Amino acid sequence: MEKFTGYVREPFYYETDQMGIIHHSNYIRWFEEARVALLDHLGFPYKKIEETGIIIPVLDVSCQYKEMIRYGEKVLIQPTIAKYTGTRLDFDYQIYGSEDQRLKTTGSSKHCFLQADNQRLVKLGRVAPSIDQLFQAYAELDKK
Q1: In Å, how far from its chain's centre is CA 58?
Q2: Rounded-to-integer distance, Cα 43 and Cα 39, Å
Q3: CA dihedral in degrees (144, 66, 68, 11; nearest 10)?
Q4: What radius of gyration, in Å, describes the C-alpha atoms of the chain?
Q5: Are the beta carbons of 14 and 110 closer than 8 angstroms?
Q6: How far apart are CA 56 and CA 6, in angstroms?
Q7: Are 114 and 122 in contact (CB under 8 A)?
Q8: Which stretch of DSSP H or E encloses residue 27?
Q9: Vertex 30: Cα angle to 24 and 31 (nearest 5)
Q10: CA distances from 71 to 15, 75, 114 (A)
């Protein structure tokens, strides 16, 4: 299993404010895009996970702005699995300027696994052991 190298994103003009700076509300969307790209990299995109009857709602999200990101500035978003318990999956995010490699933003999101048909919390190891093993293995990679 290979470590995910990150998600490259070039901001769109509509994501800026009047000063040409990325509006704060867009960072949460970028975290989601990077998380989706990580799951794609792992071979278990959201669609495939949802086809097993599992949904992964967001329980909490936070974002800390270190430096402004401007229109035209490519960024690298690096999502990592901060914690995996079988019922919970927490991500950390770092956004770096692609050219200057400076840390621009950090954040996190917390998720749980629910059975789609009844919205009940599930232990992934019981209902989707292959996905459980994948998250366990990748979480170990992120600790290195």
Answers
A1: 11
A2: 6
A3: 30
A4: 16
A5: no
A6: 21
A7: yes
A8: helix 26-41
A9: 105
A10: 8, 11, 37
Are 46 and 33 spatial neighbours (Cβ–Cβ below 8 Å)? no
Dump pLDDT digits (tens) for 1-51: 899 999 999 999 999 998 889 999 999 999 999 999 999 999 999 999 999
Tokens representing residue 92 in the block: 């950390």
- Whole-angstrom Cα distance, residue 136 to residue 81? 10
pTM tops 0.90, yes or no: yes
Tokens of 28: 């949460």
Whether the CB-CB separation of 100 and 54 falls below 8 Å is answered with no
Over the stretch 43-99, which tens digit does the pLDDT of each residue have? 999 999 999 999 999 999 999 999 999 999 999 999 999 999 999 999 999 999 999
Total residue length of the chain: 144
d(CA 120, CA 126): 13
Neighbouring CB atoms inside 10 A of 20's CB total: 13
> Can you tell me the distance from the alpha carbon of 62 to that of 82, in angstroms, rounded to the nearest whole number?
14
Q: Which of 19, 25, 6 is nearest to 97 (CA)?
A: 6
